[in-house]
Recover the amino acids of this structure.
């Protein structure tokens, strides 16, 4: 069994929210490095939520203390984003109605769990020390945190109630597969949405596949909004002439460059993503019509579409989630940049600053998708990321990680029930690679659909959760 340190509950507070929700805010201390507990601790934050029962005849304190509701733990996507408040999360009522209590635990480095930021990273020492520190924030450490918290929260549970259920969305599904690999004894059941990680593939293969889907989504965007061919080109022309190579200053300290503008396709993989990008393009183009420049309000609206400055762990570690082995033959070395430069003339802006001169006016300019590039750390995306450019470059060259993220043999002999929804038109997790992973996990039940996109757990939550629980409850034989 993989080693795991202890989680110590250091603070908790409970309060009742409208709708009969009892929320308990929990702060834990866990080892910074589970293999070396003497290296200090990190703080984890989570919210546990259950129904605030008010029966006509209240149970005795002794009886109430024996109420042991099984936990369902939500694993958020990313990496890099904390959880929403329980009352705003669509899973809460679905799970409570099915007899669970729910735990929303922010991963280490995200939300309120010792969040990664430039001062914290730079305080670790030189680039090598910073890289060693950041390598402790991958899925293998996350699942050790989860297992340590499980052991702490269920310490006094009956033996048959100590295992808990997990539900992973996107990167949360990647984490769930790591959990299945290393601590299957802690799991009662696993649910996943858009999270069947490409565990048999490396970064270059992953990006070669996802760029193809990004191209399809760009084509869909311009079919839906053909006038944006000219509008996007006009905005790009303005950025070049008004800002030059340095770009146009942004309210939070970054710079609107052509390259940063063309990363807006990150939104294309979700329901309504085409529309949200169009709305921003319309706003920027209208600024040029009415004011002859981009206004502060519109530049601030643009910043809201580029989340990495406020969630730097996403930019720092995103590419590393595809380095699944302890030792990799080749570093990722900014794989998304390299693959994009080689794959298609549609992404000529990744390699040629003067690409507009050789791009016909009528040719649509294509946006990138869920990719992180070196220019995210050049100051354009914000000053916080700029400070961490040296360690980002160092991580891109890394070939030695702490351990394998997945145990393929353990997954082949898996005996934990697993239920997954997989999206055929997923822009972020390639469907064919997801199928490869599904064939690897013994006993998994998968619903494949082309009716939803990657974020359906949020935008189509009722249908997605109904599908997951139907997979669990419906028997084939």
């Amino acid at each position: 069994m993989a080693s795991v340190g202890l989680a110590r509950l250091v603070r908790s507070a409970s309060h009742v929210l409208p709708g009969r929700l009892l929320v308990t805010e929990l702060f834990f201390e866990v080892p910074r490095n589970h293999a070396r507990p003497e290296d200090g601790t990190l703080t984890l934050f989570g919210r546990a939520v259950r129904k605030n029962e008010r029966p006509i005849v209240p149970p005795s304190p002794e009886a109430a203390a024996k109420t042991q509701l099984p936990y369902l733990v939500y694993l958020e996507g990313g990496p890099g984003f904390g959880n929403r408040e329980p009352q705003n999360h669509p899973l809460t009522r679905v799970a409570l109605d099915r007899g669970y209590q729910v735990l929303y635990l922010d991963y280490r480095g995200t939300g309120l769990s010792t969040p990664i930021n430039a001062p914290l990273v730079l305080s670790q020492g030189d680039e090598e020390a910073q890289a060693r520190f950041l390598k402790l924030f991958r899925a293998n450490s996350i699942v050790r945190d989860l297992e340590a918290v499980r052991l702490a929260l269920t310490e006094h549970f009956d033996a048959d109630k100590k295992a808990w259920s997990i539900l992973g969305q996107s990167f949360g599904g990647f984490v769930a597969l790591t959990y299945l690999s290393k601590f299957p004894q802690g799991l009662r059941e696993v649910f996943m949405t858009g999270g069947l990680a490409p565990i048999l593939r490396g970064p270059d293969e992953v990006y070669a596949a996802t760029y193809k889907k990004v191209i399809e989504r760009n084509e869909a965007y311009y079919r839906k909004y053909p006038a944006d061919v000219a509008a996007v080109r006009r905005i790009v022309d303005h950025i070049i002439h008004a800002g030059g190579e340095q770009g146009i200053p942004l309210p939070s300290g970054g710079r609107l460059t052509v390259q940063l503008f063309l990363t807006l396709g990150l939104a294309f993989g979700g329901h309504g993503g085409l529309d949200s990008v169009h709305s921003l393009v319309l706003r920027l183009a209208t600024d040029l019509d009415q004011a002859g420049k981009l206004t502060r309000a519109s530049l601030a609206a643009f910043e809201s579409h580029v989340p990495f400055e406020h969630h730097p762990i996403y930019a720092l570690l995103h590419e590393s989630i595809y380095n699944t082995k302890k030792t990799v033959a080749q570093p990722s070395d900014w794989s998304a940049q390299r693959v994009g430069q080689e794959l298609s003339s549609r992404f000529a802006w990744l390699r040629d600053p003067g690409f507009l001169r050789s791009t016909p006016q009528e040719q649509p300019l294509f946006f990138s998708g869920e990719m992180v590039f070196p220019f995210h750390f050049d100051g354009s995306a914000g000053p916080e990321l700029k400070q961490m450019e040296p360690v980002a470059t160092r991580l891109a060259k890394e070939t030695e990680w702490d351990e394998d993220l997945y145990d393929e043999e353990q997954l082949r002999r898996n005996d934990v029930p697993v239920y997954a929804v997989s999206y055929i038109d997923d822009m972020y997790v390639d469907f064919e690679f997801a199928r490869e992973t599904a064939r690897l996990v013994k006993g998994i039940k998968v619903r494949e659909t082309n009716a939803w996109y990657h974020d359906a757990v949020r935008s189509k939550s009722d249908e997605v959760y109904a599908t997951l629980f139907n997979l669990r409850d419906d028997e084939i034989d």
User: Anything to note?
Assistant: The mean pLDDT is 94. The two ends are 34 Å apart (CA to CA). The first strand starts at residue 8 and ends at 17.
